[in-house]
């Protein structure tokens, strides 16, 4: 657990420093800094899993799902977090089904 907290703190500091470095580089180039940062449309890990499963048209084991998310979106998703999120959606009867242990697919109505 302590490693998770340490990793989260370091990731936050890294993201902050990255944003500061980008701002300094824009100032050096003479680019004005926007008063409101441009909003990137980011997909949640559940949305990324949905996109991968929709393209696959078949259930996928979570290990392969994580690899495909990283390939398609360039994002590393935490295994436990993704499984937890998908399990919650399944319990709510939304979008996903579990076909085998750690294997997820889309509900029939989602394949359209």
Describe the protein in words.
The protein has four helices and three strands, in the order ααβααββ. It has 112 residues and is mostly helical. It has a three-stranded antiparallel β-sheet with strand order 1-3-2. A hairpin with a 2-residue loop joins strand 2 and strand 3 (103-106). Helix 2 (45-56) crosses helix 3. The longest helix is centred in the first third of the chain and has 28 residues, at 2-29. The radius of gyration is 18 Å and the shape is elongated.
| Strand order of the biggest β-sheet | 1-3-2
What is the share of helical residues? 55-70%
How many H/I helices? Answer: 4
What is the succession of H and E elements? HHEHHEE
- Stretches where pLDDT is under 50 for at least 5 consecutive residues are none
Q: What distance lies between the first and last C-alpha atoms, to the nearest angstrom?
A: 41 Å
Number of separate strands: 3
Shape: elongated
> How would you classify the quaternary structure?
single chain
Strand content: 5-15%
Main β-sheet: number of strands, strand sense, barrel status?
A: 3 strands, antiparallel
Radius of gyration, whole Å: 18 Å
What's the overall average pLDDT, rounded? 85
**Helix/strand/pairing class, anyone?**
mainly alpha
Keywords:
mainly alpha, 58% helix, three-stranded antiparallel beta sheet, 3 strands, elongated, 4 helices, 112 residues
Helices, strands, pairings?
Layout: H1 2-29, H2 45-56, E1 60-61, H3 62-73, H4 79-91, E2 96-100, E3 103-106
